[in-house]
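User: Look at the shape:
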Amino acid sequence: MSLWQQRALRLLRWLARMRYVKFGVVGASGTVVNMVVLYLCHNYLFDGLEADLGKPYLSLAVAIAVGTLNNFSWNRLWTWPDRRAETAEEATPGFLHQLLKYALASWFGIGLQYVLTLWWSHFMHYMLANVLAILVASVSNFLANDRWTFKKPQP
């Protein structure tokens, strides 16, 4: 078996692990939250704004922020519960510290989603553009959060 085939096989095994599946389920729920907030902001909250004056930009920024908070909370509680603060004294600083790391680790994916959604919305419906951009950004988000935000503690 070639090196390329070995790497592909390792990648497939890695994708099949339960933690990645949980991350995917959380991401799917975040996508629903993101899409609902995007729709509500675009069609109701910022409806009075002209498109050129920021309606899509503000709607998308709010949707991404709410979706990110949803994903962080569920990933911390369900995907990586073994990598949280274990004592009451660590709980608040641990939570805030991980939230900051999550936000920093996710910045590339968030930026990528934002740029791709705005770019692709010139060629397709903004909702479809947003879903496709979320899919592209999800891989980088998992890797960054698994290896840094929710890094396995050293024994």
